[in-house]
Design brief:
Shape: globular
Largest sheet: 7 strands, mixed
Number of domains: 3
Strand order of the largest sheet: 6-5-13-11-12-10-9
Number of helices: 11
Helix content: 25-40%
Distance between the termini: 94 Å
Strand content: 15-25%
């Protein structure tokens, strides 16, 4: 009899504990901001007048996201797995040694797997050369730099079972293609050679810290021959940074990472509306600064922004894609892109007037009967011409694409407009994209596309 009572008491206690998250759902709230995702919505039994056969699956997802104490349970799971198993409960986070966390989207870059084709790398280099040529012809300066992934600078804390292949990384091959260009700033070399006892990246965040950003700023200013932002008299550290990676696996904690600060007092001011450093567009002015800056940046640009804003009289910082290349004469244009997103360079063709060009006289043009994907889309004062070429248009190690429309020939960028072509998420090294002055006489059927490879072979659709 006593055993039956104990069994029943045990069972009732177990069921009661299991029911607590359900019973308290109406009064307990879950904050999804730290996990950087949207919580599942409560499903409808019918959708568009039809029975929703996925209702129970969707209900399970909704319940899992909204049950009481979910974040505390996720937090406990993360701590146990990280401490005992060295693994992460979140597929976006890699648990390294000594408390270091890494973003899983950088794993392929670190392992040198699923790398871009050599053609894609050469396409990137050529497109950046076109941007530089435009800036030079317009009397402005251009610098392109890549913010290295954290595990490219601090690989020693990656899990032991992550063994890089013998392949060369996208960064290494692009750096080689741009070497000697005059506009390429090798930030990986800069950070690896920095003499600092303080790490330049956060342990539990994706990004470089203020000291790492300052080292990047100094290198950029050296290349431009521009005055650097003073660093003050000393650097100090405070544990007041909310690590984005830590927040994803320890959402119930106020986990703080170390940030580095200088005692320099900034004098720049924000112009117009400003809500935070992650704004799409930010404008600044500085009485201490000289010159004008247009900087396209991503989240790595947040830490570097104060230094740049301080030394330029007028500065604009943008996260918009595609890049709108329209620097004023005398202005400096900087493009900063994180290593893991290098493929953006052949996904988003710059929004700028395509340069007029001439097809080299020495080449003998072959005709191809293969179908070319070519589409037109009006865009303000421009006509956007974009598409994809067949494989037989390419030979040699690099290929330039010339587009002739209504008697004028332009050189195209190698952007593959996946969304405009109805192929969202796809990546191709055979894309082309350019903006030409609006002309009603331009039609897709009348466009002549000629691909000229560096081996002297040229192929055209006409």
């Amino acid at each position: 009899m006593k055993k039956n009572v104990l069994y029943r008491l045990y069972a009732a206690t177990f069921v009661g504990i299991c029911l607590v998250p359900s019973a308290l759902m109406p009064i307990a709230e879950n904050d999804s901001t730290k996990e950087k995702r949207t919580l599942a919505e409560f499903p409808e039994i019918t959708e568009d007048g039809k029975l929703n056969f996925d209702y129970f699956t969707q209900f399970e997802s909704w319940f899992s996201d909204h049950m009481a104490f979910r974040q505390q349970l996720v937090n406990a799971d993360g701590r146990v797995k990280a401490a005992v198993l060295g693994t992460s409960p979140n597929s976006k986070v890699i648990v390294g040694s000594d408390g270091w966390l890494y973003y899983s989207d950088t794993a392929d870059s670190y392992l040198r797997l699923n790398t871009l084709s050599d053609r894609a790398i050469n396409n990137m280099a050529r497109d950046l050369e076109l941007v530089n040529d435009f800036c030079v012809s317009n009397g402005s300066e251009f610098i392109f730099t890549v913010a290295p992934n954290k595990n490219s600078i601090y690989p020693e804390h990656m899990p032991f079972n992550y063994k890089p292949s013998d392949n060369r990384s996208n960064y290494e091959r692009l750096a080689e293609a741009l070497e000697g260009s005059g506009f390429w700033c090798d930030m990986k070399e800069t950070l690896l050679s920095a003499d600092s006892s303080i790490p330049l990246y956060h342990k539990t965040d994706t990004h470089w810290n203020n000291l790492g950003a300052y080292a990047a700023h100094v290198r950029l200013m050296e290349m431009l021959g521009h005055e650097t932002c003073p660093s003050g008299t000393k650097w100090t550290t405070r544990d007041d940074r909310q690590g984005d990676l830590a927040a994803m696996i320890y959402p119930a904690e106020d986990a703080k990472d170390t940030q580095v600060y200088s005692d320099y007092e900034y004098g720049y001011q924000y112009i117009g509306r400003f809500s935070g450093l992650d704004d799409i567009d930010i404008r600044t002015s500085s009485e201490k600064g000289e010159g004008s800056l247009l900087m396209y940046r991503d989240s790595f640009g947040e830490a570097i922004l104060p230094y740049m804003a301080e030394v330029y009289q007028n500065a604009e910082f943008s996260r918009a894609l595609p890049y709108r290349i329209a620097p004023q004469p005398g202005q400096t244009l900087i493009i900063e892109l994180v290593e893991r997103n290098l493929s953006y360079l052949i996904t988003y063709a710059p929004f700028m007037a395509a340069p007029e060009a001439e097809i080299p006289d020495a080449v003998s043009v072959e005709h191809s009967s293969s179908d070319v994907t070519c589409e037109l889309a009006p865009n303000g004062a421009f006509m956007h011409i974009f598409g994809e070429l067949p494989e037989d248009y390419y030979s040699g190690s690099s290929t330039r694409i010339f587009v002739t429309a209504d008697g004028t020939t332009y050189e195209a960028f190698h952007g593959f407009e996946d969304e405009l072509l109805g192929r969202s998420g796809e990546l191709s090294d055979r894309g082309f994209s350019l903006y030409v002055p609006m002309n009603e006489n331009i039609t897709a059927d009348g466009i002549v596309i000629t691909a000229v490879s560096d081996d002297g072979r040229a192929v055209s659709n006409r």
